[in-house]
């Protein structure tokens, strides 16, 4: 089946529904699937459950979906840069599940690998451990965390080919490879679609089996915290 | 009394040749300014980078290259990039030698609170819970007291915890401390402070 689509709007067509679970790649505003987020906003779908490390800023990234109140619940590790998020959460309009960053990454990784849960030390003795199974291994206590499987993953890569093979660039890789694996369907937006065979097979980060649809996007790549050497 | 830079400089002395280190946001970021040129260490950034370089010049800014504080950064010859899952395999798997982070409260048992003030501050723990439970040695840098002059070095933390029994050492404006078996041990007193100043400003049990 042909994986290449011509726009984000076309790529999401037929894959979205109200109340769906979405896994999104990106860290802060770095490596976020900008065009897929914009297309989800335009589509008007509602009650989304989104697993994403951050929630964007007020007017960019997942912040766009919060602005239009399309999100029912966020699963994130850090949401500090978003005042609209804070407002909706404190007023009870938005549900929020904080996950430690490594637990969120591992939930996606495990979800994509068919592993329903895993034990971790992270969060033992904190509110994160409340209500979770505790188990000791070699004299240390661990908690059981369940994996995450999304109805749809949206990721951003640097280069991709018609098979859906992806390469990320620098720290824009972040959550994208694990998000790509944990979706029942995955849409990848890339800066450049390259001919099959032009990526060295040894250099592929996400093999095409994980990617259902791919399109070329135009990315703003906004910088959240410009810091220069003196 | 130590200022921010002096606290960071003191923490930098704990970093030894060959170490892999993760620096948190705020004062811990300053620590990299004080690492001796005589040693070779590697900074890890939990968003997926090992071998973090200095901040860029204007011409070298790359939106695809940031640290965990979302600041623009540069790479080094030895740099590697990886996914968040691999990054936290390093952290949770015990491969990182040291984490230096900030705190709202620390208890005499090494409990750490640094991610949430209920009803007020909703930001999230980011990678802090993973770091404190997985990294070999955890050093906290914080002011000894809060703006009201109340001790942040407590018998029990009052805020939601980031980790239980996870802190090894604490560096404050008053000195350097170790979380020992039976309480807090003063290792070093900042110039201009005395053990009495420390005792007055510390709710935690001091053993020396």
Structural description of this entry:
The complex is a heterodimer of chains A (230) and B (208). With 230 residues, chain A is of the alpha/beta class. Chain A has one domain: Glutaconate Coenzyme A-transferase (3-Layer(aba) Sandwich), CATH 3.40.1080.10. Chain A is 20% helix and 27% strand. Chain A is built from 6 helices and 11 strands. In chain A, the strands form 2 sheets. In chain A, strands 1, 2, 3, 4, 8, 9, 10 and 11 form an 8-stranded mixed sheet that branches. By secondary structure, chain B is α/β, with parallel strands linked by helices. Chain B has helices at residues 4-12, 27-30, 84-92, 128-134, 195-201, and strands at residues 20-23, 42-45, 49-52, 75-81, 98-102, 105-107, 112-113, 116-117, 121-122, 137-141, 153-154, 169-172, 175-180, 183-189. The chains are: A alpha/beta (230), B alpha/beta (208).
């Amino acid at each position: 089946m042909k994986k290449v689509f011509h726009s984000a709007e076309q790529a999401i067509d037929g894959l979205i529904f109200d109340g769906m679970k979405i896994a999104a790649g990106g860290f802060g505003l770095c490596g976020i699937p900008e065009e897929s987020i914009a297309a989800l906003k335009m589509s008007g779908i509602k009650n989304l459950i989104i697993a994403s490390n951050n929630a964007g800023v007020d007017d960019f990234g997942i912040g766009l979906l919060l602005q239009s109140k399309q999100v029912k619940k966020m699963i994130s590790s850090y949401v500090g840069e978003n005042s609209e998020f804070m407002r909706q959460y404190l007023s009870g309009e938005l549900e929020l599940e904080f996950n430690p960053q490594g637990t969120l990454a591992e939930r996606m990784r495990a979800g994509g690998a068919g592993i329903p849960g895993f034990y971790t030390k992270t969060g033992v003795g904190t509110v994160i451990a409340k209500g979770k199974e505790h188990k000791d291994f070699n004299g240390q206590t661990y908690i059981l965390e369940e994996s995450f499987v999304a109805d749809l993953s949206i990721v951003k890569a640097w280069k991709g080919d018609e098979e859906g093979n992806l390469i990320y660039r620098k720290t824009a890789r972040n959550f994208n490879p694990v998000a790509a694996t944990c979706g029942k369907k995955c849409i990848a937006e890339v800066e450049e679609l390259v001919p099959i065979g032009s990526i060295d097979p040894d250099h592929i980060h996400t093999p095409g089996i994980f990617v259902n649809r791919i399109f070329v996007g135009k990315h703003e790549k906004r910088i959240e915290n410009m810091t220069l050497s003196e | 009394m130590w200022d921010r830079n002096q606290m960071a400089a003191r923490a930098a002395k704990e970093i030894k040749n060959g170490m892999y280190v993760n620096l948190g946001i705020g004062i811990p970021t300053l620590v990299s300014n004080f690492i001796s040129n005589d040693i070779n260490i590697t900074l890890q950034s939990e968003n997926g980078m090992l071998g973090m370089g200095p901040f860029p010049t204007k011409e070298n800014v790359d939106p695809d290259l940031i640290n965990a504080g979302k600041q623009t950064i540069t790479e080094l010859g030895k740099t590697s990039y990886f996914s968040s899952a691999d990054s936290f395999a390093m952290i949770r798997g015990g491969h990182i030698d040291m984490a230096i982070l900030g705190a709202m409260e620390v208890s005499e048992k090494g409990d750490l609170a640094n991610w949430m003030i209920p009803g007020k501050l909703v930001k999230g723990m980011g990678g802090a819970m993973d770091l404190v439970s997985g990294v070999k040695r955890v050093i906290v840098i914080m002011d000894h007291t809060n703006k009201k002059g109340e001790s942040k070095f407590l018998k029990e933390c009052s805020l939601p915890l980031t980790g239980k029994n996870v802190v090894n050492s604490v560096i404050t404006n008053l000195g350097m401390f170790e979380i020992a078996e039976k309480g807090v041990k003063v290792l070093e007193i900042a110039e201009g402070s005395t053990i009495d100043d420390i005792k007055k400003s510390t709710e935690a049990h001091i053993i020396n």
